[in-house]
Design a protein that fits this description.
mainly alpha; 5 helices; 76% helix
């Protein structure tokens, strides 16, 4: 997986989450008190950036081969306060696990042809030893 996709997702997840938190916990109470400026500005900004978040999150979940149901939850996470932060932590952990697994497989593939001698069961894998 390309690191740039993960970085873009992380930036958008935190940006979307912070704007939604400000909107819900500051903008809406101020709007209820008769001051709609914060809610209007932050709500518009969150709405625009949420669309960007959708594209970036979809790109990342496809790269990580996340099942469709979980992908939909990640996409909806941007509409729940703190949801995008939780989704970001989980996707970052998944990406790290997949990167470690790929590194182990690459290291195993590199070492594979150089291995000689006894096989997995303690027997020789060389045809010359079987004769």
């Amino acid at each position: 997986m390309h690191q740039g996709v993960l970085t873009r997702y992380r930036v958008m997840a935190y940006t979307t989450a912070v704007l939604l938190i400000v909107l819900v916990f500051v903008g809406l109470p101020l709007q209820a008190a008769g001051h709609s400026g914060v809610a209007h500005v932050v709500g518009t900004l969150h709405g625009f950036l949420y669309i960007v978040y959708l594209f970036v999150a979809f790109e990342l979940t496809r790269n990580l081969h996340v099942p469709l149901g979980r992908t939909l939850l990640v996409l909806l996470a941007g509409t729940v306060p703190f949801g995008a932060i939780i989704a970001e932590r989980r996707l970052t952990a998944l990406a790290a696990r997949q990167a470690r697994r790929a590194a182990r497989e690459a290291a195993g593939a590199d070492a594979g042809p150089e291995v000689t001698g006894a096989g997995a069961h303690g027997t020789s894998e060389s045809p010359a030893h079987d004769a």
